[in-house]
Amino acid sequence: MRPLVVYTLSRVGLFAVALAVLYLTGLRDLFWLLVAAFLISGLASYVLLSGQRDEVSKAIARRRESRGDR
Q: Membrane-crossing residues (predicted)?
């Protein structure tokens, strides 16, 4: 489960960074701040976290195989 924790914390970290940068650049409306941070962090994670996403999928597949689920 370690890859899943690392990936999740990385996603949360990207969201926090996007939120902070947008706030510091002058976006103060809470709704639009959250929406923009969500979209930016989602795009950034798609590009930056592809390796971690692959590790999560491999860990899940290994766990399913060890349980005998198919």
A: 30-49
Q: pTM of the prediction?
A: 0.85
User: Euclidean distance between the first and final Cα of the chain, in Å?
Assistant: 19
- Locate the domains of the chain by residue range: 2-67
**Other CB atoms closer than 10 Å to residue 41's CB: what's the count?**
20
Calculate the alpha carbon distances from 15 to 48, 55, 70 in Å: 13, 21, 34
Cα 64 from chain centre:
23
3-class DSSP state for residue 1?
coil
Residue linked to tokens 């940068």: 21
14 neighbors 70 (Cβ within 8 angstroms): no
Query: Which residues are within 8 A (CB) of 48 and not within 5 positions of it... i.e. 6 or more apart?
Result: 14
